[in-house]
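Final report, Chapter 2: Outcomes

The project's central promise was a pipeline that accepts a single protein chain and returns its three-dimensional structure in a standardized token representation, suitable for archiving and comparison. That pipeline is now operational. To close this chapter, we reproduce one record exactly as it appears in the project archive, with the input sequence first and the structure output second.
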Amino acid sequence: MSNNAIALPDLSAAHHIAARQRAEYHRNGHILLRGILHAADANIYRDAIVQAVQRYNTETRQMEDRDTYGRAFLQIMNLWEVDAQVRQYTLARRFAQIAADLMGVERVRLYHDQALFKEPGGGHTPWHQDQYYWPIDTANTITMWMPLIDISEEMGMLTFASGSQELGFWAIWPFQTTRKPF
């Protein structure tokens, strides 16, 4: 495991989740929470994550040699297992408590982390449902997507299909990415 000497911001302080936010999450299947991480702290963790990705990236194929999934983004999984700084971010008490509060459970367990980078010339990310790719026998799961840079619509922000969690697995999505599905 990497042992970098940089002091990282403490992410153990709680971030209160209001009852209306829990209700919104359960209704829509997603929620945007602002202020979870201060911009200065995001910059520090972004640098640590970028350095870890550079050390552990094994993708060497040219963009044109990759499949749709491989062109969607550069993906490095489970960096928390090999890098102490990424571990501090991934296992932050604040993030775990937010996940537990939104799901209405006492504790959460980490399945995996992913550092995702959109590369120049890369492809789009197709509509998908994360949960159905996981070998987990429960629907009580949650993901956290936190961009560590400012993003714009032109960069490819996330789009959610509100309420789709109630529809079960959709192998083929019946709508285009150019309009809001729900």
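Archive annotation: Helices lie at 19-28, 39-56, 68-72, 84-90, 93-103.
This record, like all others produced under the grant, will remain available to the consortium after the project formally closes.
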